[in-house]
Design brief:
The protein has 228 residues and is mostly helical. It has two domains: 165 residues, Helix Hairpins, CATH 1.10.287; 50 residues, no CATH class. Helix content is 89%, strand content 0%. The radius of gyration is 54 Å and the shape is rod-shaped. The N and C termini lie far apart (117 Å).
Length: 228
């Protein structure tokens, strides 16, 4: 039972993490880019340090070569003057210089190899970082477009000002005309009371008129004029 609970909990955590990564994918990309850029900067500083060391070895080798050349000339002069004792000392010093020079050449060669490899790695890392930055720009633009499309869809089709306006217009246009409604109701009442039937009979000449008509008023006015 507890194993099942742990499995379910682990699955829920994984799904939550995945949703979080999807929600903040662009922010995570930016953070990883900052970390990658910091790592590349560190590699560049190491490369610069190696280059300086290699240059230092080069200058040391030049100094050793200059000292060896100077001692060689002095030893030959000492031998020419019959001072073999001094020439022997010079020879020992020259041997030490040559041994040191050999060691420094080996160090310089190793440094040059490390510099070459690190230069290639830094160049590849720089190209990759440029590509990743371009990808991040595309990802950010895609997210912004998705957000804009979602907001536009909500505005045009979903609950929003436009939908509310459409509903209000429908309500206004669907309202019943009050005057027309009163007229219809009046007709219904007349029909129920029999008034409509009486009016129809009166209009056909059966029985007197139920309402005063304009013709009756005209007849009355003419009668009054005749009486005068």
């Amino acid at each position: 039972m507890f194993g099942t609970i742990r499995t379910l909990w682990a699955g829920a955590e994984a799904r939550a993490e995945e949703r979080l990564r999807q929600t903040y994918a662009v922010e995570l990309i930016d953070q990883k880019l900052r970390e990658a850029e910091a790592g590349l900067g560190q590699s560049k500083r190491v490369l610069a340090s190696l280059v300086l060391r290699e240059r230092g070895e080069g200058r040391a080798l030049e100094a050793l070569a200059s000292r060896r050349q100077d001692l060689t000339g002095r030893a030959r002069a000492a031998l020419a003057a019959g001072r073999e004792d001094l020439a022997v000392q010079a020879a020992e010093a020259i041997a030490a210089l040559e041994n040191e020079s050999k060691g420094r050449h080996e160090v310089q060669a190793r440094l040059q190899l490390r510099i070459l490899r690190l230069q290639e790695a830094v160049a590849a890392g720089h190209r990759r970082l440029v590509d990743l930055k371009q990808g991040a720009v595309s990802a950010r633009a895609f997210r912004d477009e998705q957000g804009l499309a979602g907001r536009l869809k909500t505005t045009l089709a979903g609950p929003g000002p436009m939908a509310e306006a459409e509903a209000l217009i429908g309500e206004v246009l669907g309202r019943v005309d009050a005057w027309e409604e009163a007229e219809v109701l009046e007709g219904i009442e007349r029909g129920l009371s029999g008034e409509a039937a009486a009016e129809a009979l009166a209009g056909a000449g059966f029985g007197g008129s139920l309402k005063v008509t304009g013709a009756e008023i005209m007849a009355r006015l003419k009668t009054n004029l005749d009486a005068v």
